[in-house]
Design goal:
Blueprint: E1 7-9, H1 27-39, H2 46-53, H3 57-64, H4 70-90, H5 95-110, H6 122-125, H7 128-139, H8 142-167, H9 174-184, H10 187-192, H11 202-205, H12 208-236, H13 243-251, H14 255-277, H15 285-311, H16 320-326, E2 328-330, H17 337-349
Antiparallel strand pairs: 1-2
Helix pairs in contact: 1-3, 1-4, 3-4, 3-15, 4-7, 5-8, 8-9, 12-14, 12-15, 13-14
């Protein structure tokens, strides 16, 4: 029997990405503020709270919005915390419960000052969604608010579809999976945060070239996320909603082959994005400045997502920096998925 440790080679997909890693100078101050505020919600058990803290959502926001003023960075941090808490609760539930939770979140966004019903799911009780949105609408543009609600609602509805796939142990084909994953990766509402201080015309945001560039960044983020998170997800038995598994099943490749396929696809999308920038039309000097800022922002999101995945313990534990250097990921053993799911539900409910 082969006793050698099994490892996964993780290609460096962002080695040639022109947008560098930059950290917002308000990171430390806003992180302390956000972490203290989030702990007051008491929505997680001590164990889940500790795991949540290791994700360092403020770091992701500070990398994604390096030039944002302090208030907008705070909103970005709050949004990522909302994503994390919704993900933590819905990832372990069936489609029926997930849909009920999603309805609560959507209602909370549209009614940020509404008193939540007694006994409602914890997502409503801790009012994290309401407080995020009540704060956001105070200092952001109306077009941003409209676009955010549309894209975040699409994300939430896609999470229900993901839960249904999980119930049915369904593994989609590559094209069908990528279509759904463009929404479940939450990249689009994250990108809209770059509009917080802007008033971009609809003709700009929905122009075919700009829309295609947005799809490119969304795909870069989902590819990187799925490649880096695959090891943890296969260990937990939750790998069906992952590009690597989808590629392995449809194309009959092993893990290494699927990783290489994903890296090649990533390179193609990178080129499509950089080539597409040359096709962006002009809407006049004042608008063009905003368009450039918006497009640079979404490109920065791709870099931020990649860096954060290695710099925090979300996917790779404490080994992120070593793996980033060696590109070698020790394959995690399978865990008792049923027991892990029960424990996760107990932690969330405590």
């Amino acid at each position: 029997m082969d006793a050698r440790p099994r490892v996964i080679y993780l290609p460096d997909t962002m080695a040639n990405w022109p947008w560098p890693r930059v950290m917002n100078p308000h990171y430390e101050a806003v992180k302390a503020e956000v972490d203290a505020s989030f702990c007051l919600f008491k929505g997680l058990s001590p164990e889940s709270q500790e795991a949540f803290n290791k994700c360092d959502s403020a770091r992701l926001a500070a990398l994604a919005f390096p030039n944002a003023p302090r208030e907008h960075l705070r909103i970005g941090c709050d949004f990522i915390n909302v994503l994390g808490i919704v993900d933590m609760y819905t990832d372990i539930e069936n489609a029926t419960v997930t849909e009920a939770m999603v309805d609560i979140v959507i209602d909370a966004l549209h009614n940020p000052h509404k008193t939540r019903p007694e006994g409602e799911c914890i997502l409503g009780e801790i009012e994290i969604v309401q407080q995020f949105w009540a704060r956001a609408i105070q200092s952001t543009s109306l077009p941003f608010q409209r676009h955010f609600l549309d894209s975040y609602t699409a994300y939430l509805r896609a999470v229900v579809v993901e839960a249904l796939d999980r119930d049915e142990t369904r593994c989609r084909g590559i094209d069908d999976y990528i279509k759904l994953r463009r929404d479940t990766c939450a990249a689009k509402p994250a990108i809209t945060l770059y509009e917080m201080g802007m008033d971009l015309p609809e003709e700009v945001l929905y122009h075919p070239v700009v829309a295609e560039l947005t799809e490119c960044i969304t795909e870069l983020m989902l590819i990187d996320n799925d490649m880096i998170s695959y090891n943890r997800e296969q260990a937990m038995g939750d790998e069906n909603h992952n590009l690597i598994t989808t590629v392995m099943v449809e194309l009959g490749l092993d893990r290494s082959g699927a990783m290489a396929w994903a890296a090649h696809y990533h390179a193609e999308v990178e080129k499509k994005f950089t080539d597409g920038l040359a096709k962006v039309p002009s809407w006049g000097p004042s608008t063009d400045v905003l368009v450039k800022e918006y497009l640079d922002g979404m490109a920065t999101w791709a870099r931020a997502n990649h860096c954060w995945s290695y710099e925090t313990q979300r996917y790779l534990g404490t080994k992120g920096p070593v793996i980033q250097r060696t590109r070698l990921v020790p394959l995690l053993p399978k865990v008792n998925c049923k027991a892990a799911s029960v424990a996760a539900k107990d932690d969330a409910a405590d």
